[in-house]
Amino acid sequence: MMKLISVAIVAGLFFESNQQSNGVPYAVGPTYSTQCWTDWFDRDNPSGNGDWENLSNLRKENPGKICAKPLGIEARTLLGLSPAAAGEIIYKSDTTSGFICRNKDQCKKKGCSDYRVRFSCPISFCNGEDPRPKCWTDWFDRDNPSGNGDWENLSNLLTENPGKICSKPLAIQARTLSGLSAAEVGDVIHKSDTASGFICRNEDQSKNTMCNDYRVRFRCPSSFCDGGGPGPRCWTDWFDRDNPSGNGDRESLSKLRKENPGKICPKPLAIQARTLSGLSVEEAGDVIHKSDTTSGFICRNQDQSKKKKCNDYRVRFRCPSSFCDDGGPGPRCWTDWFDRDNPSGNQDRESLSELRKENPGKICAKPLAIQARTLSGLSVEEAGDVIHKSDTTSGFICRNKDQSKNKKCNDYRVRFRCPSSFCDDGGPGPRCWTDWFDRDNPSGNQDRESLSELRKENPGKICPKPLAIQARTLSGLSVEEAGDVIHKSDTTSGFICRNKDQSKDKKCNDYRVRFRCPSSFCDRRVSRQSSSLPAVCWTKWYDRDDPSGTGDWELLSTLKKENPGQICDSPLQIEAVTTDDMTPAVSTGEIFFSYSPIKGFVCRQEDQKSHKCRDYKVRFRCPCK
User: Fold this and answer.
1) Which residues of 512-547 are buried (b: 16+ CB within 10 A; e: fewer)?
2) Each residue of 376-388: pLDDT tens digit?
3) Nearest to residue 238, comparing CAs of 323, 162, 168, 290?
4) Is the Cβ–Cβ distance between 74 and 98 less than 8 Å?
5) What pTM does this model have?
6) How many angstroms from the chain centroid is the CA of residue 146?
7) For position 325, what pLDDT does the model report?
């Protein structure tokens, strides 16, 4: 399964090389980007000389699953720890050789952990070129940690949920009931694999704490899911209201709605049927009378050959993504990362109330989850800090006094998970959209939401060159759901639905439209609405050095001398990417001597295992002139 990635670099990050992890990148959660991740691979174990996940062998054993020129590599132990958290010395971790951990390099004759790896690839490798649907089961929660722990073992789940899990899962995913990963809550996991399932034992946790309560789901071959197309799906639960002991098996949609109020969307997009043992209709061999999104599913005994009865079926319905809860298989809606405080005082306080004031409109009213990372990309677990608060009511607070040996908290940034309605339907991240506009109605010949006319009637509210247009009926339906034939819908003309194009003298629905704009347009609009927030802009990219000497030195002081008047005196942020393929610096696995908006960016050859940095370019975020 491919995952889109993006990394946001925030201000105030400057550290010496001995404060770094051992060079394995961490991937920030899903958002819109130019890169994607391959599946995880685990071809070796450390029982011999070490754990050798070398790229050449992985390519041979997984043809077509790794792009020709990976942009980055990530490694995790089978328990989910990074090499830094596992405390191991890594011999190689790059996009040429792959990943190698040698037992002889570890201290006290300790062997390497068992690792799995994945590779970051260009987005073109994912878009349209990966035919495998993301086929995940429903979430299952069969146990709670009140006894010895939380045992979501696969054998029991298969027995308790016949037909709902494939016989040979490809991957497993675990989340707490509040939606957090094991790494985010800090639990030690005994097992999490596709053979045993998931086991968290209370005896393995520190300070007599219990495991969190987890739910799990499994990734299956695409044949187990509907083959209608790649990507996450919004499916209802499975329903089984009838059995074939009478005239047949009638899973009527109207009756399913009455018996399951609120659980099926008004206009399903597709229907899927499976026998209780998990077979498709084709595999079961039954003759089906009806299977559609209007009537539901009907299998009649009279239609079968040799007086054979229908199998017992269950059905589910595919719905618009807005109908699904974010915790399910659909895209996740996360805000931007925020960093309003640093631990130079008594604490690092990322208060939700203060973040709202400083970032109007950028955080939803009722966040579903919170996530914290250090500015260098470590999770709370990997950083090892004691956290005072981390919730969707107060926000995030790390107090220096709670740390051991007079150690200060790390500097954290936070983000919040929101309902899908808060994000753009087209993808997992917040977008820069205009307000909705409705200037016309279809009482005449058409519903004409002309861009030129909308500009005249709403001066300054639409950017000069919109990136996309979106239309919805006044009741909230998409064009597909409304079923209208659209004459035009583009970023040049706007949106036009003509009554004469509709069937059976039907008129167009009444539509409203909005336009997607560059993010800089939203930043400026917010700044105009709040005098306390200056508008912010990015400089151009600078690449004044290359790593042929001691390293790549993109110092702010030197850049300002060489580019007078082009960089502000006190930049708010810095961003660094490789010059050849725009890979974010934090995804390369290299160690940085400086990554600071005040000092600039420095990658030293001596700090790298390969003794050679990649070539980087940088830009700075400044108040707009």
Assistant:
1) bbbbbbeeebbbbbbbeeeeeeeebbbbeebebbeb
2) 777 787 788 889 9
3) 162
4) no
5) 0.26
6) 31
7) 44
